[in-house]
């Protein structure tokens, strides 16, 4: 049987990620205006943000599909992509050029969501296998 | 010697390290080793100084306030205590905003980056990156681009105007001059009608003296001057005279100036080095150069000489005129000599004295002169040295006269008058700096006055008087427009003050001071505004207005 909490979490994650993406983009624009943000530091930050967005879409689609069709393969792939997303989130938390307090807060929330999701995915895979 | 210094390895130097500890930073600490008033963070202040402060001008010292949490040093004055004490605390300052900087991974984010120190390796790169027109060696406008001309002015006749650089076949006529430092720069062009005199230093050495272009005569006369700008008519620079200066400074004029003398090495000296060039350019009133001559001073250097001082000058004379130095055009210029002359007997107009060489008072440039004080201050031993009176400069000079019993009054009085006034005191002074001798009304006669020190004379006795002071008062006015007033002399008065002669008993002597002075007084009347004439209303009734009565 599909895991309802996992599906709920996917739904909330999707909405939260849209907010996260817009907030991070807005803050990067704010930082580039207020602080000294040379181009060779700005480009990697923006590029990684867009890569993260693509990975997130892929991850949520695969996870949702795997959960609803009760197959473990897409869920497993989604788990693997989650590792990448976690790394990117840690980048935005620690290794970004300017880390504001707001960055710390939203990245912490995102990491918490990822952690919870991973746990539920593992239990779902265990249930489907 | 610079060669041995270059052998040492170049060490990159660093600027001073930035101070980031807030406890050590103090913005109001301006005086070194002294207590600044009301500066609570000044380490030079003692507790006694703090008790005199009224407030703290700098209450808190923090780093960048956008950081989320940082150390801050606060200073405050506890006025309730007696005596007032300074309280300094180190606290953690927290920025409540959600957009405060938590951390950064970019080192230069919050502070200025220390600039790169130039070394021999990165100098060219830094110069290319940061240098601009200020640091380039030759300005871009030096290479005259003859293609970028309008074809429409091909038929215009060009002529030189004041200040235009004099063009030669390859570039411009150069007058080396010091730029920024005292070393010669060869890129200073000579301007038309701009009389210039410059002195600069050039580095030389005996071994390379025949390779240095700027010390050889050829460098200064090889390119011909164009008679008018952008034309093909050329004027060669002729050598007018050559003066040779020996190592101990004596100068001799050479008889033949036709031979070109180039630097050459002779017995450990290098001779024929150019020490000075003086150009004389003759021009027409149409702005064309017709003649150019150069006079050289050549010298010699020995092994020990590392640099020489070269002097250059250029002067312009109009063709068919004899140059007369003007003291202003038209108004007198402060610092230039006053021109004077006198009317020779028999001529109705004042003419500048042509026997100028013999006249000691108006020296050979027809100037008004005053006695020059000498070091021994003895009037009777004075050699007749006189100094020209410069417009606008009040002068006083004098000497001491020792009167002995053996002197007689009358010859002494005549000697003193000659001493004060000079051999022939002029009668007229030019009212403008450029007054010509033919214009009678431009010359002001000198009024002579006689004053005596003692006012009352015993009756029936005209005692002998000796002159003790000559005071020349020159009254001048500002003439012309308000924005460019010209100085014009309106009145010159020479007052001779005399004192009675007292015959001394034998063996006694007396010393009296004899002075001569010049005073310039400005008698300008206040400026009057000049308005245009009021428009008049011209109203006339028609001719037949009162028809049929008229």
From TrEMBL, chain A:
This is TMM80 protein. Keywords: Cell projection, Membrane, Transmembrane, Transmembrane helix. It is a multi-pass membrane protein. The gene is Tmem80. InterPro entries: Uncharacterised_TM-17. The keyword DNA repair does not apply. GO terms for biological process: non-motile cilium assembly. It comes from the Eukaryota. It is found in: Cell projection, Cilium; Membrane. The chain crosses the membrane at residues 6-30, 42-62, 74-94, 106-128. GO terms for cellular component: ciliary transition zone; membrane. The keyword Transferase does not apply. Coiled coil: none annotated.
UniProtKB/TrEMBL annotation, chain B:
Residues 17-123 form the Tectonic-1-3 N-terminal domain. The keyword Chloroplast does not apply. Residues 159-319, 328-522 form the Tectonic-1-3 domain. Keywords: Cilium biogenesis/degradation, Glycoprotein, Signal. Pfam families: DUF1619_N, TCTN_DUF1619. GO terms for cellular component: MKS complex. GO terms for biological process: cilium assembly; protein localization to ciliary transition zone. Belongs to the tectonic family. Part of the tectonic-like complex (also named B9 complex). This is TECT1 protein. The gene is Tctn1.
